[in-house]
Amino acid sequence: MKVFLECLPCLLRQVLDATKTATDDADLRNTIMTEALEMLRGYGSFPNAPTVARGMQRLIKAHTGNADPYAAIKQSDLALALRLLPDVRQQVESRDDSLYWALKAAATGNLLDCAAGTRFDAERFTAEFETLFAVCDDAAFRERLQTAQTLLVIGDNAGETVFDGLLLSQFPHLRRTYAVRSAPAINDATAADALASGLDAYADILPTGCDAPGVLLSECSETFLERFYASDIVISKGQGNLETLSDCPREIFFLLKAKCPAVAGLLGVDLYAYVFRHREYRPDKA
Amino acid sequence: MKVFLECLPCLLRQVLDATKTATDDADLRNTIMTEALEMLRGYGSFPNAPTVARGMQRLIKAHTGNADPYAAIKQSDLALALRLLPDVRQQVESRDDSLYWALKAAATGNLLDCAAGTRFDAERFTAEFETLFAVCDDAAFRERLQTAQTLLVIGDNAGETVFDGLLLSQFPHLRRTYAVRSAPAINDATAADALASGLDAYADILPTGCDAPGVLLSECSETFLERFYASDIVISKGQGNLETLSDCPREIFFLLKAKCPAVAGLLGVDLYAYVFRHREYRPDKA
Asked: Looking at this predicted complex, what is its ipTM?
């Protein structure tokens, strides 16, 4: 998915937030922002927005030495999600269609995204949890579940991970893998964040081999690629993964909140809608 | 007031909105955004954000021939404000302190600002009208009114103008001037917008001589400068005028809603606060 014009102000806000967090030095901030604008000017040469975001993060690291400006925010989001978890689990398990609500809990977790500029608190999570999916291809998902033996979930933000654990726990009969970024990428989950979310109780935790806030298949490890293509079901969380996997050669279920007009437009939903979209792939008909 | 780092994403969003309104041609949009990013990269060489915004507007005009991308939005904001006016006037006139509420109506009008990305409807106006000023230097203003013979109000956005008329109408004993941009500048009011708001019933309508979304004194006409320095009271509306007049050599009353963190921080108020700030000027103590 290309870099949309709508991505440009958002990417610039993102690098500004990260820069302000990474350094208090005014000159350094100016240097980083000037170089970020130079990079952004070449947006047409990037394959997608997460690749630009990764480039900007590298700029910040090169100038400040800070490779993880969002470390504190991630810890705070994780702590909040862990506090919410018992109540959300009780909600999911007490409802008639636990699978639907487990998917919805994991999608609502996609709220925890400082990189998208969304604010978050317990009250908002509870309210948004009750909002139904605008698109929910759960029929196809339930059909796949009847024969599947393996499930891969590709994580997005730290904190959101906690609710992904609730989703993973619904499928004890499957061999489950949870994929994470190989190094800090904005506020995205790494292996350490997945462990802090307790996901090792449900799944193998597998870094993709890529440090972008998305999955750049050309940069992923062979181990990840093998798991990606061989898994019976792949669930991709969030916008960054959608942006980088929207044209990939396999079936995927995209689970996310559409947090920007470009992604909402592409999915054909209203801004801020919740989506569980089955993307079919039939190579013989390509 | 310099270009803050926080201005950069906002300026980029602004030029994107204007570009999308001005042309449907994808190539042209890309050309404009690339050149806008190049201009933005040199933000350190601009004296203030309104000057950057003006440069971007010139880019759009040069590439599309459209000098007024916000024309339709301005008309719509004007129409909405005119519909609200009778009720707001009744509110102002029925309250004990009509002067305070006339100032507050004019400040609340500063909501009508698509350039700042704020949304607006009748319900929101009514709710925000009841929000008190966080800073209100009305004592100094009332003192000046006791001896003043002339008042200059420097307008900001089209639509907001309508409520400025309500403020102007409070001072029938003063010779009143309402200053406007000399040519379209984002959604700012021009002479045509002031006339459409009925301001000629209360004041001389005077273009500043400048087409930036602010007042660049070095570009203003002699007629305006004479009025600016000679008026007993000057009220400056909105952020763009504050950004360009914050260091000018005369006393000013700044009347606005603080719609961005940079301006709120500078004024020492919370984001979105309403402010009526007396800025004194004593050249002998400079």
From this structure: 0.88
